[in-house]
Specification:
The chain is an alpha/beta fold. It has ten helices and twelve strands. The strands form four sheets. A five-stranded mixed beta sheet has the order 2-7-6-5-4, with helices on both faces. It is globular.
Length: 423
């Protein structure tokens, strides 16, 4: 990955070197490991990992299995598109949660195991007029996450329904709904967010819904996910899967069937929402007290905070080096705290925009997925970095301590473009 040298002298970021290319979370973990993170992870606050806490300490949530019985059938190759009991359980869940009173229902055949620019000024909302404009100029497929990572915002009805009406018979709409359970817009009543509510006919509406056990069921290690959509799409995806990975392992599919009872899921989501909302509010209150005005932008879903580092009030000078995501990440390593610099969420496929011109450069993603004691430690780390910056503290050069800097020198801060991107 090559970056142009900007007119004001910016140099490429070490993490974006083609010999070290990786996702944002992996890159951050690798840099933290140079500081001893993998040696003693319990001493760190990892607010960068995009995963929820996975233990059984959340009041009201059902216990996760500690062992899985393996049937004789599970020893054989399974169907590429998934076993029928799990496919039927997913269809039933969507029908009871999102298709009540509708003639068109999902069946087991509708399920398979498996950039639009947005603006910070209006909360990164997906607007129907933007969707209509994209379709009018020839766009045939629209893919988006709802709720959205990293901003923590979501689109709900009637706007979501209007977007689907615009796309119907004109464009395929692919919805990443992995964070649908982390919904704080309905008073933590267990309701989930899904475009399934607005589908007229499950076999003719070109809408694909992607979800799984990873996020809202807090089982990221199981690697069980699904796609819900028209039967013909699912058949085609199953055919593709036979050439790619052969499908999801059968024992985990069998174990997942019992998780998806609609009444159990509703109770699970209510407990999940109350628990994570409390953690969200704790982090936002701490960040406000530290001085970050952008913490007033309250995420209504997911378990992420999209923190604008330039919103610190009173501000600190550029020389403090905590107003951009890369340097802020660098300073936090000294506090054994990890966040993800915003540049890893920038849509810049042609690599033509300079690194320091990125509209995401002055943001970090803070995850409140970990347990509360980890969040407390992480907020302490952020508070310490800001306090040291205000006191004129000079951080030890990382190059001399760890043999390689995580960031290069940054030029004077420039005004970011008005259009931000979200993935």
């Amino acid at each position: 990955m090559q970056l142009r040298t900007s007119a004001h002298g910016a140099r490429p970021h070490a993490g974006l070197d083609p010999s070290r290319s990786s996702t944002g979370v992996i890159w951050c973990t690798e840099r933290a490991s140079e500081h001893g993170f993998l040696d003693k992870p319990s001493e760190w606050a990892n607010l960068g990992q995009g995963a929820p806490e996975v233990d059984d300490d959340i009041k009201g949530c059902f216990p996760r299995p500690t062992s899985i019985p393996i049937s004789e059938n599970a020893r054989e190759y399974g169907p590429t598109a998934g076993i029928k009991p799990l496919r039927a359980a997913v269809a039933r869940l969507y029908n009871e949660q999102h298709r009540q009173g509708k003639d068109s229902k999902y069946t087991w055949e509708n399920f398979s195991a498996i950039p639009i620019p947005l603006s910070m000024t209006d909360g990164y909302a997906i607007h129907s007029d933007i969707v209509a404009s994209e379709i009018a100029r020839g766009t045939s497929v629209i893919i988006t996450s709802n709720p959205r990572n990293p901003t923590g915002h979501t689109t709900v009805n009637p706007e979501l329904a209007h977007i689907q009406d615009i796309c119907r018979d004109r464009a395929t709409l692919i919805m990443d709904e992995f964070y649908s359970g982390y919904n704080y817009t309905t008073n933590c009543d267990g309701s989930t967010i899904s475009a399934a509510d607005n589908i007229v006919d499950v076999d003719t509406d070109d809408v694909l819904l992607i979800d799984g056990l990873t996020k809202r069921f807090r089982l990221p290690g199981w690697r069980v996910a699904w796609i819900v959509g028209p039967k013909e799409y699912i058949k085609a995806l199953g055919s593709c899967g036979s050439y790619l990975d052969g499908g999801t392992n059968v024992p985990f599919q069998e174990a997942a069937v019992n998780f998806l009872d609609p009444r159990l899921v509703r109770h699970e989501m209510a407990a999940l929402q109350s628990h994570f909302k409390a953690k969200r509010d704790y982090c936002l209150n701490r960040l406000r007290k530290i001085g970050y005005k952008s913490a007033d932008d309250v995420p209504d879903a997911t378990f992420y905070i999209w923190l604008d580092l330039t919103s610190l009030d009173p501000p600190v000078g550029h020389e403090a080096g905590i107003s951009d995501g890369l340097n802020f990440f660098d300073k936090l390593l000294h506090e054994k705290t990890i966040v993800v610099p915003g540049i890893f969420f920038d849509l810049n496929p042609a690599k033509r925009r300079d690194l320091f011109d990125s509209p995401c450069h002055h943001f970090v993603r803070v995850s409140y997925g970990p347990k509360m004691d980890v969040l407390e430690k992480g907020m302490d780390g952020i508070e310490n970095v800001v306090k040291k910056a205000r006191d004129g503290f000079k951080w030890t050069n990382i190059t001399s301590m760890f043999g390689g800097s995580a960031v290069h020198d940054e030029p004077e801060l420039q005004q970011s473009p008005k259009v931000d991107h979200n993935i």
